[in-house]
Amino acid sequence: MTDTLQISKFLHGGDYNPEQWIDNSEIINRDFTLFKQSKINTFTIGIFSWAKIEPKEGVYDFEWLDNIFDRVEQQNGNIILATPSGARPRWMSEKYPEVLRTNEQGQKLLFGERHNHCLSSPVYRAKTKSINYQLAKRYGHRKSLILWHISNELGGDCHCELCQEKFREWMKNKYKTIDNLNRLYWSSFWSHQYNNWDDIHSPSTLGDTTSLILNLDWKRFVTDQTIDVFENEVKPLREVTPNIPVTTNFMGGNPPESSIFMDLDYQKFSKHVDVISWDSYPNWSNDYETTETLAMKTALMNDVMRGLKHDSYLIMESTPSQVNWHPFNKSKRPGMHEMGSLQQIAHGANSVLYFQLHQSRGSSEMFHGAVVTHSLSNRTRVFKDVSLVGKDLEKLQPLLKSKYTHTKIAIVFDYDNVWALDDARNYSDQTKKYWHTIQSHYSVFWQNNIPVDIISAQDDLSPYTLVIDPMHFMMDIEYMEKIEKYVSSGGNLVGTYMTGMVDKNYLAYLGGWPERLQRIYGLSYVETDTLYPKQTNTIIWEDNEYKVIDYADVFEQKNATSLAYYEDDFYAQSPALTKNDLGSGTAMMIAGRTEKAFLNKFYSKLIDKYSLRDSQIPFENADAHLSVQVRQDERQKYYFITNYTDNKQISLFKDSYTEMLSGNSLNGSTTLEPYQVIVATKD
Ligand code: GLA
Ligand code: ZN
Fold first, then answer.
1. Confidence at residue 174, expressed as pLDDT on a 0 to 100 scale
2. What is the pLDDT of residues 495-508, one digit of tens each?
3. Is 317 one of the annotated active-site residues of the chain?
4. CA–CA separation, 404 vs 402, rounded Å?
5. Residue 279 Cβ contacting ligand 1 at under 6 Å
6. Could you tell me the distance, in angstroms and rounded to a whole number, from the CA of residue 153 to the centre of ligand 2?
7. Could you identify the atom of ligand 1 that is nearest to the CA of residue 323?
8. pTM of the model
9. How many Å apart are CA 513 and CA 566, to the nearest integer?
């Protein structure tokens, strides 16, 4: 990332909406004094400013924005300039109703909210393109401009006639003939044959939501349309400012799942942005999980975002204190802001940016956390917390060019698979829990302080010693070829229940599991038992008993070796954990969903067997509840060591280190207070 985005400091700042204070220069003056005090160096502006920039069609007012550029530049700050399409001005919807979104029941929405635009409207596209030209021409040469921020948290779909037409074109392009479409859509089911392209309509509760492939294609189409809208916005920017990189803020981490945003294929989208940036809002101190558990989930989200380009990334938004949209908007405990902010840097982020720098006085987000609150004071807890992070980032300046450490383990995550699984009518909607499963596998490594990459099914597997491929329900033959190659040339693969059930057209494989999968795993799939929540089966493995919950796949053993068997029910004595040697590698299958203790043991054996530990831990007492993440450059490693527990933790350093935040030397025993982070580098 640092190659495209030229920054000389970690970015500290965030969304700033001075258009709300345009008549109050005192507030803006005061803001800039406070920003300087809190070491804010980056301002994301213009996100929702369209109505101020173009109050009437074709009438522009840039003066206020010019002033903000001047103010920022007087302080040597950076500007991330947003294109204003995150919210449209009222006049546009009045004059051109086609820009408004239509819901899946065909109702055109009224003006309001934000992100409320049609994905196909030619008017909307022309208007965004033209305002972006204006912005690029006016501000492209400003020395503070470091990055374009396209729109805001793109998402949602539109079902208007224009979008239906686009969908039909997309389908024509993909399926070529109606006969082919009918064949691949298995449309003789329920007499759903298509007679011509005009029959195609998006999924709707007033029409069809039962065609699994139609639902999936609609999701694929919405991603493509969103990318198209994005590219339409980017075109004028690339033309006028070819050297300014482009991002858009991705979403992730909403409680309780803390999963990546699932409605758009970010893996596909990421190819179109220069720099990955995302909005991170963990609900620290909730009442259903420990801080350590939430830290693990947040670590995973950071690794997902890092994995999109396998590079450093930006945190575009985070809250300096509480939000206003969690089920419970809890304030941050002392120490948590620093802890959460540095966690992101530890995983390879090069920024701590906030929503927002100054709290809005009214409307829906008026009590959302901000650096400057209604008190306008620098004596608030939040202001002090933010200032501390500002100082920290300055002290960490030597590691700006460092990147997240090298990993030997990858977990595969694929959007088509997520969508397909989500819609699958076998299994149980209550217990599929795909993301939870990814978290369970990931957490074993996180607890052991072993770094993991989250990769897509398109990524190269060869750099990894271990590839974990959980619940890969929708899998095409090409991918099977790829994992076969990976394993036979020495890779180690772990698969689980629900693997390889359908192809990319959402059609079942005929004749049982594809031969390739049978060869890879040395098994043939027989059936899946979906358990009710109170039912369990059992696995006995090396004298320990483990519970099987939710799902048990039944396999017939072919070339594989069975390491453990199910104990109960009609599939008692069929294999529950297997290993198959293929070429110089191994493919293992975890056939049922197990309790966590099983995964702990299973992976700790692999960690030893494949030497996956890689000297990540700089202290002797590896069992201390301390989390270690490593960034490194050519010269050295930087160890971010965090206490995510509510108790003091002691580390016994093996050598002498310098702690970069305090400047102290670390030697032997060091006590970390709850939520404390230290950054150690070897002397
Ligand atoms: C999102 C949006 C912001 C703001 C914040 C509030 O991330 O992008 O505009 O609404 O949520 O947390
Ligand atoms: Zn539309």
1. 98
2. 999 999 999 999 99
3. yes
4. 7
5. yes
6. 18
7. 12
8. 0.97
9. 21
